[in-house]
Amino acid sequence: MKSYQVTEYNRIFLKDIIQEGSLCIDATAGGGNDTAFLCERVGESGRVLAFDIQQVALDKTKERLESEGLLQRAQLILDGHQNMHLYAKENSADAIMFNFGYFPGGDHSIYTKSESSIAAIESGLKILKKDGAMSLCIYSGGDSGFEERDALLNYLTTLNSKKYLVIVSQYYNRPNCPPIPVLIVKLL
């Protein structure tokens, strides 16, 4: 592991799940870091759908993918992540990645909200294949507060344990509301 950032932590779990030819989704494209990771993993025969509600985020993602020669593997979608079911079939994706909160370097008044985020997770769980995984990076505090964090963590306790394995980790000794890494594996 190169760093101990929450995004890198979650990628470790997804590396073995994502294969050449996989379909993957970056539900919150932001600056394109996860989109680029997914594009590298799916190879030339795979596909990545990257969602964001801010054109500036998709523009930054496009710039990143172009510079790395990965743009042809991605479809950049200006739409809310709760609508991903309109772009991918049920049981079709190997991995889905989320970073909740706001776009770093962007407008902090625009951030994910629990209602649409829970709807997006529900949509994503239908899209995931059996043995596929979804990673969540839950950021809280600061501009966006704690409402979304609390709602997401509460929602995760309701998932059927026969259908989903939910692993919630924490940075135990970090101050100031550290991010929470979560992994959901679809068992059935």
Class based on secondary structure composition and strand pairing: alpha/beta
Estimate the helix proportion, in percent: 25-40%
Query: Gap between N and C termini, in Å?
Result: 30 Å
* Individual helix count: 5
Shape: globular
Beta-strand proportion: 15-25%
Order of helices and strands: HEHEHEEHEHEE
Query: Unreliable segments (pLDDT under 50, ≥5 consecutive)?
Result: none
Radius of gyration: 15 Å
Strand arrangement across the biggest beta sheet: 3-2-1-4-5-7-6
Number of strands: 7
Q: Could you give a short account of the major beta sheet?
A: 7 strands, mixed
Overall average residue pLDDT = 91
Question: How would you sum up this structure, described in words?
Answer:
This protein is of the alpha/beta class and 188 residues long. A 7-stranded mixed β-sheet has the order 3-2-1-4-5-7-6, with helices on both faces. The longest helix is centred in the middle third of the chain and has 14 residues, at 114-127. Helices cover 30% and strands 24% of the residues. The two termini are 30 Å apart. The model has no long low-confidence stretch (mean pLDDT 91).
